[in-house]
Write a structure and sequence with these properties.
Blueprint (H helix, E strand, L loop, with lengths): L2 H32 L6 H19 L6 H27 L3 H27 L12 E4 L2 E4 H23 L1 H11 L1 H6 L4 H26 L7 H15 L4 H21 L5 H15 L13
Antiparallel strand pairs: 1-2
Helix pairs in contact: 1-5, 1-8, 1-9, 1-10, 2-3, 2-4, 2-8, 2-9, 3-4, 3-8, 5-6, 5-8, 9-10, 9-11, 10-11
Length: 296
């Protein structure tokens, strides 16, 4: 296998991994902060993809214009969903375990609601459009321009979120809530405002991921669920609550899938992901990129 072929293979894995990381960051933010395992996360990715496709095919919008629009719309939708669903659950659940169970059931309902709504409005056919399909030559290898752009934007959003959480006062409040919810509230952090905002940002990131995916791949109403499962695998790799770990885990899983499919069979993609998932759960359940907690 030539060097250029290896570069193309690794680039393909990194491009896929960048999307995985972006989806996983949003889900990790919701679960790590609020203990909401939002299994409908991928459906909002699919919604972002369809909104971008609709604006491009019906009104001729440049898909890049839909990146901030998708983020804003899905973030606003996320705030509404949190206030109408999960906030009520947190107030009526006697403990965190019951809240997680009830939240999971609500997320199931949201998943089927969004998927069937999109199928009803736009049908079940594959959709897509051409955008920056011209090949770009780098170091003797050819890459699709739209996929390079997808990777660059996905990586930029991932890094921006990590910087936000590490360098800003808002981020410090979020990390404090992740580490000790009770302690954070005792020092005056307002969970009533922070929780819906962060839930909205999580859905906004899924909308951006869907927007980016529509630039390079065909889309369908059933596309969201596999990305939710993959995000859970990525979070397991990186460690629950670890944003840098989710980024590293997403890129690693993309590379593993690309190399594994090259040497085996593309139909074994899901099998490769689950093998990695189960192996990490058995051998290092706290994640590959987190330190083992010391026993007292």
């Amino acid at each position: 296998m030539s060097i250029s072929a290896w570069l193309e293979l690794l680039a393909s894995g990194l491009i896929t991994g960048g999307i995985y990381a972006l989806v996983a960051l949003g889900l990790n933010l919701q679960y790590g902060l609020m203990r909401i395992l939002n299994i409908a996360h991928g459906e909002f990715l699919m919604l972002g993809a369809y909104l971008t496709w609709m604006m491009q095919s019906s009104f001729g919008w440049n898909p890049l214009l839909m990146v901030p629009v998708s983020f804003a719309l899905l973030m606003a939708l996320g705030v509404v969903i949190h206030w109408t669903c999960f906030r009520r659950l947190s107030q009526t659940s006697p403990n965190i375990d019951i809240f997680e169970a009830r939240g999971l059931m609500v997320a199931f309902g949201l998943m089927f609601l969004v998927q069937n709504l999109v199928s009803h409005v736009w049908g079940g056919d594959l959709r897509g459009y051409d955008f920056m399909t011209e090949p770009v030559k780098i170091a003797g290898s050819q890459f699709a321009g739209n996929k390079l752009l997808v990777f660059a934007l996905a990586l930029a959003f991932c890094v921006a979120l990590i910087v936000l959480l590490r360098m800003t006062l808002l981020g410090k409040g979020v990390r404090a809530l992740m580490q000790s919810p009770l302690g954070a509230q005792l020092v005056g952090i307002d969970t009533q405002k922070l929780h819906p905002m962060m839930f909205g940002i999580g859905l906004g990131l899924s909308g951006v991921a869907g927007c980016l995916l529509s630039m390079a791949y065909t889309i369908a109403p059933s596309m969201g669920e596999p990305y939710t499962v993959t995000a859970l695998i990525v979070i397991t790799l990186g460690g629950f609550g670890s944003m840098a770990g989710a980024l590293a885990g997403g890129l690693l899983l993309g590379l593993v899938e690309a190399v594994g499919m090259h040497y085996t069979n593309p139909s074994l993609k899901a099998l490769l992901s689950y093998v990695v998932f189960i192996s990490v759960l058995l051998l290092r359940p706290e994640g590959l990129f987190t330190r083992k907690s010391r026993k007292a």
